[in-house]
Design brief:
The chain is an alpha/beta fold and 1100 residues long. It contains 39 helices and 15 strands. Strand 7, helix 27 and strand 8 form a beta-alpha-beta unit. 40% of the residues are buried.
Length: 1100
């Protein structure tokens, strides 16, 4: 696009638009510099503003005085290009920086869409360009449609799947969302202002006095305030979804704590519905008693009224959150009027009837008399506190509907903390006012006035003209200590207090009826308890948990009809307190773990205060009711163990994970300060398995002596073009580590990409491990196909053994008769799995069509099935894709599969024969000893074979037995082999000679020139000189095989000292021939060579 002078390109006034880039022009000519010096204004520099750049356009604005420069630029005949061809223009006199930031490149600018989760309700997730797309050559690696690069860079494009997901979210649009007032503040205030405010607070003041009563309120508020601060911190540390307390705890401490507390918290809310409804029904029944309008009897009337009330509340809840919110607002207005009615009543002059019942308006004498405690028999500070504390709960009412809030991160802290403050002020105000107006005991008799001359003895009522002294000897019906309807008496209009009681009970019941299904639905959606998945489904635009509503309704009805609520109430209170304790602990734990992801926007919290809050909640649980606290802990512990055992497949980045990392890091660092000691030696192995599933037997035998005692790293080397290798390596990392976890193998997976196999192994040997947790033993499988393998493979194989010895790392070579690699079998199994899936899909399709289309559709499907059967035969129904029987003969080697599982099975009674021919520090002896400690090998006894002199067999046997006893290693027998250095028989030697024949040079049979030429052309071949120099060693390997055949043919496992090939003296092919002849036709063999440093000691 060429720039021109039209108004569309350079408008005189450009409105602010964040969807475009703005580039200001810089004039760098000498003239403009001089002019700038004369100008009082400071120089103008390039300014680039960018935002949601949704369009591939740019605009240029200029400072006053720069219009002429622009005109000159445009008249030069040059054009400024945009999109992919745009470039900065530089003339002789002026330089213009017109390139915009964020355009013209695949690289993306920071945007919120890149950080959203898939399926986010707050907006679509967009995938940023991968590092590969940015790093590789653009033309060769990335195919970009014209104009798409800029869209991708600025977040306008997205994958098809995510587009579909976001479209579905849009279709569900119109969901009702609440702000912080209606969503949190109103709900929390209604839930905290319970029936306790109207019928128990006056009694608490009477028992504890104004002073301790205020202390009880403040202590309760301290618990809830600390919990509110912790809740606010967790809620502002990332986007909050539905689930309330369960969501906050589970995302902080993990599914174990969240799953256990979520279930009991939902149940507590469901039973709380019954508690509040029964409180409402009892008040109604009391009114019916006064008017003599009972339906049946008090108990059944409560059941009838309670059942009807629950049905009505259920109807309001099912109608939708919007109707429920409107009902809550109406109830709050009634409640506020009732509270205001009480305060107004305290200043209305009292009449004689009220005075006889103990109400005298504000009196300093009453305040002074009621300031101290006056506990009755059986009551004390903590018992009164236990009665009041449930009135302070309900602070999570707003958080419990977090999924229905517009901005939970803002609404939860603001609404919760303000609700705690307002309700605390109200509780304190009511407590102080009622304590300053009403005496503790009153008779209610209008004639109990003072007779002149009576000594009042400091009684406030007496000073005010009433004699209530007989209340000391007989029970009275009125006063703070006796009458639960004090607030009705004091208020300006008594029925409004009754309306307030109705409002308090119904609003709390309604809040609990909404909270329980919401929390329960979030718990079920996470599929922690698979049996509860049925209740995860939501309906309507608000995703209402209708099934959860029905379940809550059933639970509430059951407890209304059959339960003893006085017994269950303390348990429910403890359930809520357990939730508070875990929320506080979550905040402390997240702070203590020091995870960089812990960045709450709400900074008014302290980790130690949160910990104190958690301890305080636990203490309050025992104060309220010790046996209820024990029951709560037992249930929570049971659920915790259950969830831990089931191990749900979730990863929420909990603080438990963060703390595990910190602990592991601290322990690893601490370990580096500890010097190695021979008593603490353990085999720490690098196992060259390739993919761990391709050589399971090699991994199994290694895992047998490293499990729970040493490090085990399964390693794979990707050889080939680096780009392809790295891609393949990265894509399989998580899958292969997951395979290890699934198969309960305590090992790590590591991989490298290298130009050749030996280079990769060398890198692993040097760089694997961390601090003291570094490998000290290399475990490899025996190269069974060495005779057919290319020269480079043999050089690499023998080379890695040399490298291990160079790095002072022990070597273990494992040989089994069938070899280790079962990749072909796995490939066949994958094919059969695909066929089985196709068969099941086909059967399901046929079944559906039988229901929908009738016989005509079925015939069509059978035609389709026939075509499929031609291309890929379908296995029979009774076939098993995970067993040998499911594979066709010839597609796999049955013996290979059996051999790959041989170390998974329990080894029967037998022996592990240890041929400890050379002292390598003791590794050859330690590994078989560790094996005998394992459950699968514990029935195998150790037989020790060592070399010795024929004329000193008994002496050397005694010496070896003494050494083993000092090492505290149990053994079944010791054999001293005195004829190891004898020549092997001719047949065995002939086999060895035939084995190495293809690799011999035979230079002694040729003239000198030809021999030298052959040496240069094939330096890897075995020369006659080399063979003659090590003839004794070759004899020994052949002879050892004869002895092994003779003594250890029936052993379960043979552990044998590995011969060492001296570098530069023993050719690779000769060394492979030694290993072949040494282990030929034997049970499983471990060739072991330690690094010649002690791994055994007999010192304490």
């Amino acid at each position: 696009m060429s720039l021109n002078n039209s108004s569309s390109v350079f408008p005189d006034s450009v409105p602010s638009n964040t969807n475009r880039f703005q580039v200001n022009v810089i004039n760098e000519s000498h003239e403009s510099s001089a002019a700038a010096e004369d100008n009082a204004d400071p120089p103008h520099y390039e300014e680039t503003s960018f935002g949601d750049a949704a369009q591939n356009r740019f605009r240029v604005s200029f400072r006053p005085g720069n219009q002429e420069c622009y005109d000159n630029f445009l008249h030069n005949g040059e054009t400024a290009k945009t999109d992919t061809s745009f470039h900065a223009y530089d003339s002789h006199t002026n330089t213009y920086y017109l390139q915009t930031f964020g355009h013209n490149t695949v690289d993306a600018i920071p945007k919120i869409e890149y950080y959203r989760n898939t399926g986010s309700v707050s907006g679509p997730k967009v995938s940023r360009p991968s590092l590969l797309e940015i790093h590789e050559q653009f033309a060769k690696s990335v195919a970009v449609a014209p104009g798409s690069a800029d869209r991708v860079a600025n977040g306008d494009g997205m994958p098809g799947d995510e587009q579909a997901e976001n479209k579905e979210e849009e279709n569900k649009g119109g969901a009702v969302k609440f702000g912080w007032v209606k969503g949190v503040l109103v709900r929390c205030m209604l839930n905290i202002w319970g029936v306790m405010l109207f019928i128990r607070l006056s009694w608490i003041v009477g028992e504890a006095g104004i002073g301790l009563g205020v202390l009880i309120i403040l202590l309760s508020t301290m618990v809830t305030s600390i919990t509110g601060l912790s809740t606010s911190a967790i809620a502002t540390n990332g986007f909050v979804r539905g689930g309330g307390a369960y969501y906050l705890i589970s995302r902080s401490l993990g599914p174990e704590f969240g799953g256990s507390i979520g279930l009991i918290f939902a149940f507590a809310n469901a039973v709380a519905v019954a508690m509040y409804v029964v409180g409402f029904a009892e008040t109604v029944v009391d009114l019916l008693k006064e008017t003599d309008s009972m339906m049946v009897d008090p108990t059944n009337d409560i059941r009838i009224i309670g059942s009807i009330t629950v049905v009505i509340l259920l109807g309001i809840s099912v109608a939708g959150m919007e109707w429920e919110a409107k009902a809550q607002v109406i109830l709050l207005i009634i409640l506020l009027i009732a509270i205001a009615n009480f305060f107004i009543g305290t200043v209305i002059p009292s009449n004689n009837e009220k005075k006889s019942r103990g109400f005298f308006n504000y009196q300093a004498s009453i305040f002074a008399e009621n300031f101290g405690p006056s506990f009755t028999k059986g009551e004390g500070f903590f018992s009164v506190f236990a009665i009041f504390f449930p009135a302070a709960t309900g602070i999570l009412a707003g958080a419990n509907i977090s999924g229905d809030l517009e901005d939970p991160q803002d609404a939860i802290p603001r609404g919760t903390m303000l609700a705690i403050f307002i309700t605390t002020v109200a509780y304190l105000g009511v407590a102080i006012c009622v304590g300053a107006c009403v005496v503790r005991d009153a008779t209610g008799n209008l004639n109990d006035t003072i007779i002149s001359g009576i000594n009042c003895n400091g009684s406030a009522a007496c000073v005010l003209g009433y004699d209530f002294s007989r209340c000391r000897h007989e029970p009275c019906q009125y006063g703070l200590m006796n009458n639960f309807q004090v607030m009705s008496m004091v208020s300006g209009f008594g029925p409004l207090i009754t309306a307030g009681i109705f409002s308090a009970t119904l609003s709390s019941a309604l809040a609990s009826l909404v909270s329980a299904p919401k929390v329960f639905q979030a718990l079920c959606k996470d599929n922690i308890y698979k049996a509860l998945q049925f209740f995860a489904k939501g309906y309507g635009k608000n995703n209402e948990p209708l099934r959860g509503y029905i379940l809550t309704f059933v639970i509430a009805m059951a407890f209304i009809l059959i339960a003893e609520l006085n017994t269950i109430a303390p348990i429910i209170s403890n359930f809520f307190l357990a939730s508070y304790a875990l929320i506080n602990f979550s905040c402390f734990h997240a702070s203590y773990a020091k995870s960089p992801g812990w960045r709450p926007a709400y900074g008014v919290y302290n980790m130690w205060v949160s910990l104190f809050g958690a301890v305080l909640c636990c203490a309050v649980m025992f104060v309220i009711n010790w046996w209820a606290a024990v029951i709560t802990y037992v249930i929570e512990f049971f659920l915790y163990v259950y969830v831990t055992y089931k191990k749900p497949d979730v990863n929420w980045g909990s603080s438990t994970q963060a703390l595990s990392y910190v602990s592991a890091l601290d322990n690893a660092l601490e370990l580096t300060t500890v010097e190695d000691h021979v008593k603490n030696f353990r085999p720490q192995c690098i196992v060259l398995t390739g993919g761990p599933m391709t050589r399971p037997a090699l991994l199994d035998i290694t895992h047998a002596f490293t499990k729970n005692s040493g490090l085990c790293i399964c390693c794979e080397v990707f050889v080939g073009p680096r780009k392809l290798c790295v891609k393949e390596m990265n894509s399989g990392m998580a899958k292969k580590q997951a395979w290890l976890i699934k198969n309960k193998i305590k090992a790590f997976y590591a991989a490298v990409a290298a130009d050749c196999f030996r280079d990769g192994v060398r890198s692993l040997l040097q760089a694997s491990g961390l601090g003291r947790m570094k490998p000290n033993t290399l475990v490899i499988g025996y190269k069974k196909n060495w005779r057919k393998a290319p020269l480079t493979e043999i050089e690499n194989y023998v080379g890695i053994i040399h490298d291990a010895f160079d790095f002072e790392i022990g070597v273990v070579i494992v040989r089994i008769s069938q070899g280790f690699d079962i990749s072909q079998v796995l490939q066949v199994q994958d094919e059969l799995e695909k066929l089985e899936q196709e068969r099941l899909a086909l059967e399901a399709t046929i079944k559906d069509n039988e229901c929908e289309e009738g016989s005509g559709g079925i015939r069509g499907l059978f035609k389709k099935a026939g075509k499929l059967a031609i291309t890929k035969p379908t296995p029979k129904k009774d076939s098993s894709i995970n067993t040998i029987q499911s594979m066709h003969v010839g597609e796999f080697n049955q013996k290979l599969v059996e051999a790959s599982n041989q170390f998974k099975k329990k080894q029967g009674k037998g022996t592990i024969d240890v041929w400890w021919l050379f002292d390598d520090g003791g590794l050859t002896l330690l590994i078989p000893y560790i094996l005998t400690l394992r459950k699968k090998w514990k029935d195998c006894k150790l037989r020790i074979y060592v070399g010795g002199k024929i004329n000193r067999i008994e002496e050397e046997k005694i010496a070896m037995a003494s050494l083993l006893s000092k090492f505290r290693i149990k053994f079944a027998d010791i054999h001293i082999i005195g004829d190891i250095n004898m020549k092997p028989n001719k047949e065995s030697w002939k086999v060895f000679e035939e084995m190495i024949e293809p690799y011999r040079l035979h230079e002694s049979c040729k003239d000198l020139t030809t021999a030298e030429k052959l040496k240069r052309e094939t330096p890897w071949k075995i020369t006659d000189a080399e063979l003659e120099a090590v003839k004794e060693k070759s004899y020994r390997q052949v002879r050892l095989n004869e002895l092994l055949q003779e003594h250890s043919r029936a052993a379960n496992l043979i552990v044998l000292s590995l011969p060492v090939a001296r570098k530069g003296s023993i050719s690779d092919w000769l060394y492979m021939a030694w290993l072949e002849i040494l282990t030929k036709n034997l049970p499983p063999v471990l060739l072991v060579r330690g690094n010649h440093k002690n791994v055994l000691t007999f010192y304490s």
